[in-house]
Amino acid sequence: MKKKTLALLVTASLGGSILAGCSGGDEAASSDGVTKIEFWAAPNPTQQVYWEEMANKFEEENDHIDIEVSPMKESPTSEASIQTAIAGKSAPTMSENINRGFAAQLAQSQALVPLNEIEGWDELVANRNMEDTIQTWKFSDDNQYVLPIYSNPMLFGWRIDILEEVGVTETPRTYSEVLEAAKKLKEKYPDKYVWAKPDLADPTAWKRWFDFFMLYDAASGGNNFIEGDNFVADDQAGVDVLTFMDDLRAEKGILTKEATDPFESGLGIFTDLGPWTFSYWEEKFPEMKFGETFDLALPPVPDSTDLENVNTFADTKGIVIYASATEEERAAALEFLNWVYENPDHDLEWLETTKLPPARDDLSENESFTTFFEENPELKPYAEAVPYAIPSIDNAKYNELQTHIGSHAVNPVVEGTVAPKEGWEAMKKAIEEELSR
């Protein structure tokens, strides 16, 4: 999901109306031996085209299932349209475009089917070679409510051309290396910054996915932040992250004022990048060349951290099956998904169509994708990081919880008004109070 869409996440309570909407009866889901299922694709033209093509090919080989593909409504948001459909007893059989936090809201209201309870689930996971990737999607009740379609391990971009100008020849991987690069940058270019990002001073919940959680997942080795209704974050890793931000601020390496294209212009030399960036750059910033102008790296980590298999945050979404679907519709939906994902060529077509990395453990090794990554080398680092990417927290209050991270910790620390440990403790207290309500 692109960030402007993330900003519109709906956090309204689903309450009893959704439960009523999910209490569908056992009406026959087929006529003339054909089971009809409705699939809502993400409101993205490339994804709709992909799923329509998959449905047509599937129906050519399987005349007992009819799949109707349509885009979910975006007004006011896709999440709101799903909530409205559930409450109005008009939910589809299944839909994509679901992140783990929103799924937690829906699962809490019993609006989703645990996919692991449908026959064929284990076969699907094995055939797609996603045993490792799927583990981080397990919910606190040990169920799997979402089949991840794509996993964008968020990486940091570095302006290696500017690093070389200031005498840094290796992309920084640890906090001390980043701070050393900051000192050299400010000595030569006092008006440049390491991290030029206004979002660091903004408490909006979704923005923490692209700064705090990237760094926290790396520093903690992928340790959970929330489990069920319990705060289980690694305190030392959290304080280390905030201390790193504070140290970078002290070196005058952070800019939180609004700036136009700070990374592309060279005002800042370090920023979070998703794979959707590069198509945009081809048109607007053709001078941005992988391996020449910029490099991609996993998040920097504390100096004592093992540099192998560093974790990061995964910007990722997947497919759910709604509880209002009949048993026949659920089985048909999983049969369709098994057909799609047992063939890696279908994931290749997805990758070519959307540029979003399929959620597979073998994405960087499977020969089906070799040619694609040879032609798109800037996307290979994302493929390599898929097994180590951590999805968003699975708590229905994720919006409130992540707002506390910004308002009590990240924002005041980068502004220099709160010490890292003080900010962490204030954030922790606010989150624990939120979870106890």
TrEMBL record:
Keyword Hydrolase carried by entry: no
Signal peptide (from-to): 1-20
UniProtKB keywords: Signal
Entries under PROSITE patterns matching the protein: PROKAR_LIPOPROTEIN
Gene3D superfamilies linked: Periplasmic binding protein-like II
SUPFAM superfamilies documented for this protein: Periplasmic binding protein-like II (SSF53850)
One Pfam family this sequence matches: SBP_bac_8
InterPro entries for this protein: Bact_solute-bd_prot1, SBP
Record PANTHER family: ARABINOSE-BINDING PROTEIN-RELATED, CARBOHYDRATE ABC TRANSPORTER SUBSTRATE-BINDING PROTEIN
Stated name of the protein: Sugar ABC transporter substrate-binding protein
Organism: Jeotgalibacillus proteolyticus
